[in-house]
Amino acid sequence: MSTSVQKASLFNRFLDSVERVGNKLPHPATLFALMALLIVLLSAVAATLGLTAEHPVTGEIVKVKNLLTSDGIRWIWTNVEKNFVDFPPLGLVLVVMVGIGVSEGSGLFTVLVRQLVLGAPKRLITAAIIVAGIFSHLASEAGYVILIPLGAMIFHAIGRHPMAGFAAAFCGVSAGFGSNFLIGSVDPILAGLSTSAANIIDPSIMVNPMVNYFFMVASAIMVVVVGTFVTEKIVEPRLGTYTGELQPLEIEKLSEREKKGLRWAGWGALAICGLLAWSIIPEDGLLRDPETGGILHSPFFKGIVVAIFLIFFVPGLIYGIITGSIKNDKDVVKHMTHSMKGMGGYIVLVFFAAQFVYFFKESNLGIVLAINGAAWLKSIGLTGIPLIIGFVLLSAFINLFMGSASAKWAIMAPVFVPMFMLLNYHPGVAQAAFRIGDSVTNVITPMMSYFALIVTFSQKYDERYGIGTIISMMLPFTIIFLLVWIVIISIWYLTGFPLGLDGPIYLKAGI
Q1: Where are the transmembrane segments (predicted)?
Q2: Residue 508: inside a domain, yes or no?
Q3: Residues near 428 by Cβ (< 8 Å), separated by ≥ 6?
Q4: Which residue numbers in the chain have pLDDT < 50?
């Protein structure tokens, strides 16, 4: 046996061990409940030990809150329902699923998959799904709800393992945070936080939302190429042949009625997109911010879930009417109801996941961990490439415990942006390194808001799939993306090539 085969075999055995251990854990809902209980206990221990951190912006001493005190128990008692209802993915998922139910029930999804399978080159399917995942961030986090199950469906239809398509879509959607071909809604948020942090050193600095644009485009190309390689050469061979009970979609040529329905559904989608554009592009657009006239914090983005709902509901309705799969309003409601039947397990899972996430947030354990971790990295005095790599690894580690990217950057930017600037690096360097670390571990951390939904989707193909299945399947993406991304940003550092449209990697003056 060759050395490369032995290494591959060892790596597969390692992933198999991860899967076995992970799947021997309790049901994900039980696991989240136990983790919530553990947070309560850890908060008591940490508070007793006096674990604190100094907030880098306010200078306030952040203390761990003991959730086992009378105040803590009262907070838990009065917030269980609120935690569940306010959990960010819950509303988005349920509203979008109502619209998806019409598209799926009318047959639009099925005919779209058939058309894609019939028309697209088979060798480009994996790359196309990853590209779609990267672009999906333009529609907020809808890619988690829509594209991941669609990727599995497409692979299943062409005779490949559905979980390989699932993995390709998941890697594209999650890595889209640190790589993209276009500027998304998160870029102005991060740039604003970077600006505030940079002003600590130089009040005149303004960080442009496109500060990482060149790096993001190069990273997006890397994600497509490397993601395709990992999917087809590592993940898919390990998965083998799908032997589950779910039957694949039969691929037949589209009938004339189906083609007509598809054309009119496309016109319907374009009409919705046109109306949405009309509501935000003009300066007096109805869905712009009525006070500032801006788009970023406008009603449009605050209610983006409505736009996503309409983009699926209207074309699905049109297709159903033309093909005869929808004859009256009862059919529409029936399709909506059917789409919600499979969400029962997800809703139960979210109930316990929400308690874990909000217990963790209320205890301040995540904030204290992030601040102390940042202070430690600063204290060891790294510079150059070791500093960048260390910050990438720290960001990846903290992402395992804190799900919100903007919340993490709000804490980390005031520490690291000034630190990088004082070492003569542009604020965009710190921001780019943060985005790498925050992207690579998204696919393996249960703290990611949509992880519960990901597990639920996977169980459609095999009810035995659990947290261990997902982590072992996605771990190769984490490891290889991390290594390649470190190489890319190191090359950027050595060449001094601009990260984006806001200056070079070094600050040449002012520091």
Answers
A1: 29-51, 90-113, 166-190, 210-230, 262-281, 301-322, 343-360, 380-402, 409-427, 439-458, 470-494
A2: no
A3: 194, 207, 211, 212, 499, 500, 502, 503, 505
A4: 1-6, 507-511
